[in-house]
Design the sequence.
């Protein structure tokens, strides 16, 4: 297992971590890279890369904020559950994703990039990377 | 593959199954544990553990019920599709998640626990556990 | 890694690909099949099989369209991000799922089938299949 550390800059942010993940697996001869986020208010997902990617990321961020509204009558917001919406948004993305490898290269689609999905930033966040044969 | 059986108590319920999953992998020397739920109205996800965890779970349950409303004009509710909302809520969580292992210990974050997400309980539910090297 | 190609027929469509995936793994002696979709507007998920399955699929399609509304005030729809809703719907499903194998057979539940989730069809779509030991 390798562990990557990245820093998010905003409260809700899709942060492109493709380069960091690609570097972590480049010397591997495994067939599958599994990424795991050990946080309860951040997830991992694949989204658009290249021109227009930041626009897509911004739209995904806004959509998740809209779908899970901070203004809802949350039951437990005053009982040690400071940000239930962050937890729900995390549940809607994923804590792990597995990506095939070809000779140490992530077998991503042409338009795919790997994003950490931050829902309670800014923070330093961790991604574990496990390569399987 | 090992198979765990757990019992849910409510219709919509995040059930903490961390102890059962941890016990299933504790004698393993693998690098990755994959959990798979063979049901169409239950999923698996990682959420908050420790003090306040039940409050977070309750808020996640309520949010998923709110986001996928039983009162929507479902097309097929009378045609053998008794509970379409349960299927949609399952689609929003996950059927599998993969967690790194360190010497037989789940490499969870400090605040993470593993939850079965029940959307049509109470029921007896199954979780398959596969350890990869 | 094996690569399957399937064709979707509608803009939003849950397409049952269980037979194609089952055929891809049937000669394998591995313990886990990981499916990966290298697209940013299509995902993969498990849903109901058998009688009533198409009704469930239709309800899931309609629910995802409803939850992520094309009529929202999307910021970037005119800036090279033609269909942000397709990307968000993809984020809500998954890009990978891992299914246990028993002697070359997918260890699916009685009522489970594997669906490609199309959010920008009709298109030809690709699914990568990696079997781990």
Sequence:
């Amino acid at each position: 297992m390798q562990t990557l550390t990245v820093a998010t800059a905003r409260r809700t942010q899709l942060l492109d971590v493709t380069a960091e993940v690609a570097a972590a697996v480049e010397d591997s001869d495994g067939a599958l890279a599994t990424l795991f986020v050990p946080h309860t208010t951040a997830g991992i997902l694949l989204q658009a890369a290249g021109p227009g990617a930041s626009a897509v990321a911004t739209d995904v961020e806004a959509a998740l904020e809209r779908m899970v509204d901070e203004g809802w009558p949350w039951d437990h917001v005053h009982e040690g559950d400071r940000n239930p919406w962050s937890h729900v948004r995390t549940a809607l993305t994923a804590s792990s994703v597995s990506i095939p490898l070809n000779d140490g290269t992530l077998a991503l689609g042409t338009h795919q990039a790997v994003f950490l999905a931050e829902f309670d930033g800014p923070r330093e966040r961790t991604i574990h990377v496990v390569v399987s044969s």
